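Note to self: keep these together.
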Amino acid sequence: MIRILFFVLLVLCLALGFAWLADRPGELSLIWQGQLIEMSLMRAASILISLFAAVLIVVWLLRTIWLSPHTVTRYFRSRKRDRGYQALSTGLIAAGAGDANLARKMAARTRNLISSDQEPLIHLLEAQTALIEGKYDDARKKFEAMADDPETRELGLRGLYLEAKRLGANEAARQYAERASEKAPHLPWATLATLDHRSQARQWDEAIRLLDQSRAAHVLEKNEADRKKAVLLTARAMERLDADPKSARDDAQAALKLDDRLVPAALVAAKALFREENLRKGASILERMWKLDPHPDIARLYVRARGGDSALDRLKRAKKLESLRSNNAVALATVAEAALDARELALARTKAEAAARLEPRESIFLLLADIEEADTGDEGRIRHWMAQALKSPRDPAWTADGVTSPVWLPVSPVSGRLDAFEWKAPPSQIAAATEDGHLNPDQAIRSLPPVATVPRPVEEPAPERTVEAAPTAERDQTERERAERERAERERAGPEKAISVPDRKEPAASPATGKDAEEAPDPFFGRPPDDPGVREPAAAERTTTNFRLF
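Structure:
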């Protein structure tokens, strides 16, 4: 384009010059070797310009003839290079498509047409060809050669890292990733791989430092970088919790500033504050997290924040959680569990059934079985709740890569990936045995069998039991009182609960209830078992199966 403009400008200048001479006519006289030459000024200018153009043309012809061998050589060299790049392009496409024969053929043709020093992509084509042919040693040698070349260092390290991961050489993969992150900190794969390896080794300080460097280089997006740093800070806080609660509290609170929905960070911060006797601030953190995400771990820690609280105090705290997030299955289940510990069985049953209607889960029906055991001790009703638990969906748990953990972990034990655990329901292999494939909680509650009224013969105690059974008169009185209580419950429940109960066996020994509670040697409905001063239950009472989940 510049040449065209220059040519147009030159022609314009010549035209202007000739026009200027045409407006100013004149005669030019020249005496050369005794000869007088006379001509017009316009004619003299034309002859001069034509002579100059002829000289330029002659010079161009001589230069073209002189440089013609080099021009011909350069033409054939350019043509060969173009053919080589065409073969290289075809070979890379064939390698990507998995065509080993065509890729090998194009690699050989490219090697003959282009020098590898001139085009480093030839090493990549040969390495990819060796990989799809199964020649992993040759591919590794090619990647090592590429890693030594500054122009292809990152590409070679990437290939060596993937080969080490394929062979399971985690230490070699870690070294290649760290080498790549040092030479090129802008590579996301190197940064993330090094971050995962340092997290697996529990080197939290180095992992946080590397993450800060990657954030400064804009390798990761801001939201992703904030989430990963929050996870790393939470992991470091969990390790420091026992030895240094103050540092653990600072790390956990910093993690909450980066991600206010990270439940493990809130739990660690609250535990650290509780150990510093700062109950109010710790409870405030749990309440704020509870409003965002009603998690069972938060409820469990909140209810049992103080070790010396009685069961009634824990029930009050559970009711406060329910007031913060009403009409929630986790909140209702928390109140039901606390009411069971406080032996307020009517409240426990009401809340547990409400939770089952909202979200029928395995743990809720197991809790109902515990309530049934404490209230009536009827094995038929207990088996009913247990059967509903088997048919109901599993409770959410910390799940990562197909495995579950009772507590949150920062790194997956399977893949080593950072921030892999999620709070979700694990896959279940047992399908619900219902007609429509879904559990109906209302039907499950309505189909609860009534308490058995016909006394069954008491089985002989097992040989290993050392406590003698209650006297016959006392046992008969207990059975009569139980029958009267069950008859009253059936009258209140109405006719829909009058369902026949299959034959079953009564437990060998049941805890005393009603008036006999004062005569029983170990009161079951007295103070909660976790309160100080409660005696260890007798051996005959410990034989009853405990279905408590929490």
